[in-house]
Design a protein that fits this description.
By secondary structure, the chain is mainly α. It is 64% helix and 0% strand. Helix 1 packs antiparallel against helix 2, helix 2 (17-27) packs antiparallel against helix 4 and helix 2 runs antiparallel to helix 6 (74-82).
Length: 166
């Protein structure tokens, strides 16, 4: 679903859970929200997500249900920000310290093999086509291993929320 909320309102919604709820009301169809929140009417949904209304108040359970159903964490992120916390996604794949150390050792070993190939090829002062192929194979293996390490490290990166400066 496209995001129709103006930038200023979305920025303010990052800091206030009530405004985040209101921005959901602006971005999504009230009938869809009614089904998710299990409300009897769209009017109740509008009242629960309207910061001006005091008649109906949205519960945390409803906010979590909206977050899960819409795949939109802005209310939960706003609630966390209001409490001085941050809602951070965890990495999907996680490697332990031993696996990372093993990968680093493998990179060193593969680069050492590349150095050995180069040293052996230069031993007679001339690198022939066969030696060049061996160096190239060792170099490609080293690149592949380093890229695998980079991929493993990249899977550990967490996307932190961006702080808006006022």
């Amino acid at each position: 679903m496209p995001n129709k909320t103006p930038y200023i309102k979305r920025r303010n919604a990052c800091e206030d859970p009530v405004m985040a709820g209101y921005s959901l009301l602006q971005d999504y169809d009230t009938n869809d929200l009614k089904e998710i929140m299990v409300c009897s009417s769209e009017t109740i949904v509008r009242n629960k997500l309207n910061p001006e209304s005091e008649r109906n108040v949205q519960t945390l359970i409803e906010a979590v249900a909206l977050s899960v159903a819409l795949n939109d964490d802005r209310q939960l992120a706003a609630w966390a920000a209001k409490r001085g916390k941050a809602l951070v996604s965890l990495p999907t794949d996680c490697i332990c310290e031993e696996e990372l150390a093993d990968q680093l050792l493998l990179v060193s070993e593969v680069i050492g093999c590349l150095h050995t190939e180069i040293r052996n090829a230069r031993a007679d002062g001339v690198i022939d086509a066969k030696e060049r192929q061996a160096i190239r194979a060792a170099a490609l293996n080293a690149v592949r291993t380093v890229l695998e390490l980079d991929e493993s490290i990249g899977s550990q990166v967490r996307k932190l929320p961006v702080q808006n400066n006022k």
